Amino acid sequence: MECCSIRDTETGTKKIVLVGNPNVGKSMLFYSLTGKYATVSNYPGTTVDIMVGRIKDLGMEVIDTPGMYSLIAITEEERVARKILLENPEIVVHVVDAKNIQRMLPFTIQLILAGFRTILVLNAMDEAEKHGMKINSEIISEKLGIPVIKTIATQKKGIDELKRAIKNSGCFSGEPKIELNSSLGEKIEKMESLIRGEYPISRKMISVLILAGDAETVEMIRKEERFEEIMAIAGDRDKTPYEIFMMFQKISDEIVELAVDHQEYRGGLRELLSNLSTHPLVAIPMTFLSLYLLYLFAGVIGAQILVDYIETLYETYISTPVDDWLLANIDNYWLRELVGGEYGIITLGVRYAIAIIFPIVTTFFIAFSILEDSGYLPRVAMLLDSAFKKIGLSGRAVIPLLLGLGCGTMATIVTRTLETRKEKVIATLMLAIGIPCSAQLGVMLGIAPDFGSLLIWISIVALVLIVTGTAGSRIIKGEEPTFFMELPPLRIPNLSNVLFKTLTRLEWYIKEVLPIFVLISVVIWIGRITTVFDIVVSLLAIPSMAIGLPRSAGLIFLYGFFRRDYGAAGLFDLIEKGIFTQSQIIVGMVALTLFVPCIAMFSVMCKERGVKAGVSILVLSLVTAFVVGYLTNIMLSLTG
Amino acid sequence: MIELEEAENVIKNIWLAENEDGDEVSLDSIEKEVMDYLMKENLVEVKEGRLFLTENGKQRARKIIRLHRLAERLLNDVLGMGEKKIEESACRFEHFLDDEVEEAICTLLGHPTVCPHGREIPKGDCCLKGEEEVERLIFRLSELSPGDVGEIKYVVGGREIHTKTIAFGLLPGEKIKVIRVFPAFVIEVGNTQLALDKKFASSIYVLKTEVENKNQKREKVKTKWRWRWRGGS
C-alpha cells in the first residue's frame, strides 16, 4: 500500500481531526489512538478545551473537537469545532454512534461534499448489535467512496483497523460519489460556478451552506466579485434549510436502507431502567441519592477522613521538621517566614494545597465522574428544567452549577455550553455568588457544629441563589432559554474511565492551584514586610466585626479572594483554634460562601463574560456577602 | 363565475403586495368586467390612480389566502402530493371552499400557523376558538400522550428552533414515539431519546399514526374522519 500512504504525499506534521455529535465516544477513541486522555463523558458538551495528541507509530497529530451536529454551527462549542475543521486538516475522522447511523450519516455526507478526506467510524458497535442492527460497512464504504471502520472504543476494538485506514487514506482520494439530484441541485451548481476564491471547504459545500442559511459562510464569501449575483440565486433562504437537510437525509436513508438490517428488538432490562430513570418518582430520589454520593465522597471521605489523615502526616513529616530546620539554620526572620512559620510557602501554601484541598477535590471529581459517565446528569437536567426556567435558566445549566460544586473556575468555563447569553450570565452570577466549590463545601461540611447549623447555612445560601436567579432573569435582557437535550443511554461507569478522567481534571486543578497557593504565600510575605497586609486585614476586620465575627476573621476574607478554598481552609484553621461561637461559625460560613469569587474564577469570568460583567459580579457578591452575613447574625441573635 | 375567480385573484394579489412581498397590481392590468365586479361588491377603491383594498376587500383577501395555504397544508401533509400538483389544486381550492369545510380542514390539521413554504396562514374563527369538533390527525407534539407514535410533518417557530430540530434530525417524515410528557417531554427518534421542553414540543407538528396497544381506537379515528370529510364536501 505504499503507493498511497499519505506520508509520501507531503512532509510535515499531518493533522487528523475527530468530529461528531456529542457523546458518541470521540474522546474515548482519541485516547485509544493517542494514549492520552481527553475528558470522556456521558454528558453532551463537556469537552470544552481542545485535546491534542499524537499517534506515535504514524507520526501524526490528532485533535479532539467539541461535539457538533452539522457544518452549521449553533453553539459556541460548535463554532470552535468548525473553526478547527476549517484549519486544513489532512484527514477528518467522523465518529458516529453506530445505532444512530441514520441520524448521523447526513453529517458524513456534508463532510465529503465539503471536500475533506473523510473516514467514517461506526463506534459502539456492541450497542448497535444489542439493538438488533446488522450493519454492512462495505456497502456504506462503496456508496460514499470513503473508508468505513467499525469500532468499540471502550474495549479498544477496531483501533488498529482505524490506524491502518488513516495510514492508507490516500487510496481513497477521488471525487465524492454523492450526487445532489434534488431541485436544489441546479441552484447549487449555478452558485458554485460563480464562486472564484479558494476556501477551506469546497465551493459546492459553500453554496449548500449559504442555501441552508448559514450566516458565517455568507461572511466568508462576502469579498467575492459576484457576491450579489450568488446571493440573488440563493434567493429567499428562509425556506430552503429544510429542503437542504431533507436532501442529505434522503441520500443517507437510501444508503442505510441497503446497508443496515434491523431485527426485531424488544427493550431489555437496561431500557426499562433507562425509561424508569426519567420518571419523576424515580428520578427525584435518584437525584437526592446522587447529591448524597457527592456529599459522601467530598464531604465525608475527602473533607473529614482524608484531610485529617493527610494533614497529620504533613504536620508531622513536613511542617514541623521544616520549621525546626529553619530555626536552627537560618538567622534572618523574614527569610524563615517566607518558607515556614505561620504563612510560609511550605507551611501554608503547599500545606493548604496538598493536605486540605487536594483530598477534597479528588474525592469530588471521582464522584462527579461516576455521575457523568453513568449518563444520569442529562436526566437530572430534564427533571429540573421546569424549575430552572423560573430562575431564567434551562435544565442544561444543571451541569455547570453541579460542576461548580467541584470548582467554580472550571464551571465558569463550562457555562459556554449554555445557549443564550442570558443563561450564561445568570449561571456565572450564581456560581460567583453562592455555589460553594468542593473545597469550600467540604470544609463547610467539616466545620458545621451540628446538622441544624448545616441546614441553616444551606437554606440561607439556597435562598440567596433563588433570589439571585429570579432577580437576574427579570433584570438581564435576552431570549428565554429553550431546553433540548439528548438523553444518552444509562451506562455502568467504567472504572478506568472514571480514574483517567479524575486524573485529567486533577492535573488541570493542580497546575492551576499549586502555583497560585505558592504565590499567595509570597504575596502575603511581601504584604507583611511592607505592612500592607496588616492594613488590608484590619480594613476587612471592620465588616467582619460588623457582622459579629471576631477580628481575626478579616484574614479569611482576604484569603478567600485569593482562592475560595484557601479562605475556607483558613476558616477551618481558625475554628480549630476554638475562638468562634456556634452562631459565629454559621455567620462565617454564610458570609464566606457568598463572598467574592477567587482570583482565578474572577479572571475567567472577565475572559468569558467581559471585564464589565466580571467587576459588577465581584462587587455584587461582596455586598451580598456582608449584607446577608449581617442579616444572618441578627436573625441568629434574635432566635438565640 | 369566471369573473368571481379573477376578481378574487386580483384582491389576493393586492393583499400580497400590501402585506407580503408581491408586486404592485396596476390598474390597467384589470379587465373592465372584473373591475366593475370589484367596485360593485365594494372590495377595492381607487386613490390617485392606485388600487387599494377596502375593509371588506381585506377581509375577503385574507380568507382567500387562508384557504389557499390551508389547502396546501392538507395536500402536502395528509395526502402527500407533489409540489406542482399542490399549487394547481390550491389555486382552485381557494375559490370554493365553504366556511364549514374550511374549519374542518383547519381543525383537522391542528390549526396550523404556516403553509408548507413557511408563510403565515391568516387565523380563522376556529383557530381563535380552538374548536376540536373534528377528530384530528395532526397534533402539536406537546399535545400527545406517552405511547403515541407519529410522523413529524412540519416545524414552526424561529430560525433557532429550525436549526436545532435539523441538527437533531427531527425532519419532516421522521417517525417519533412519545415516552414521557412530564416533567419534560421525552421522545424517541430512531435509537435516540431526546428531552425537550413544552415550548419546543409545541413547535413540532406530528401526524399521529398509531396509539400504542389501542389499534381499535386507531381504526375508529380513521373512519370517523373519512365520514366527516365526505359529509363536509
- Largest sheet descriptor of chain B: 6 strands, antiparallel
Whole-number radius of gyration of chain A? Answer: 28 Å
Q: How many H/I helical runs of chain A? A: 28
- Indicate the percent of residues in helices of chain A: 55-70%
What average pLDDT do the residues of chain A reach?
A: 82
Q: What is the CATH class of the largest domain in chain B?
A: Mainly Alpha
Written description of the protein model:
The complex is a heterodimer of chains A (640) and B (233). Chain A has a 6-stranded mixed beta sheet with strand order 2-3-1-4-5-7, with helices on both faces. In chain A, strands 6-8 form a two-stranded antiparallel sheet. Chain A has helices spanning 26-34, 76-85, 101-113, 125-130, 137-144, 159-167, 184-194, 203-211, 215-220, 227-234, 240-259, 269-276, 280-329, 333-339, 345-374, 377-389, 398-404, 408-414, 421-433, 438-447, 451-475, 495-529, 532-546, 553-562, 564-576, 582-594, 599-609, 611-639, and strands spanning 14-19, 51-55, 60-64, 91-97, 118-123, 133-135, 148-150, 260-262, 484-487. Chain A is built from 28 helices and 9 strands. By secondary structure, chain A is of the alpha/beta class. Chain A starts with 13 loop residues before the first strand and ends with a helix. By secondary structure, chain B is an alpha+beta fold. In chain B, 48% of the residues lie in helices and 18% in strands. The two termini of chain B are 19 Å apart. Chain A binds chain B through residues 69-70, 72, 74, 99-100, 102-104, 106, 128, 131, 213, 238-239, 241-242, 245-246, 249, 274-275, 278-280, 283, 378, 381-386, 389, 394-395, 479-480, 482-487, and chain B through 117-118, 155, 159-164, 166-169, 171-173, 179-180, 182-184, 186, 189-197, 199-200. Strand 9 of chain A pairs antiparallel with strand 7 of chain B.
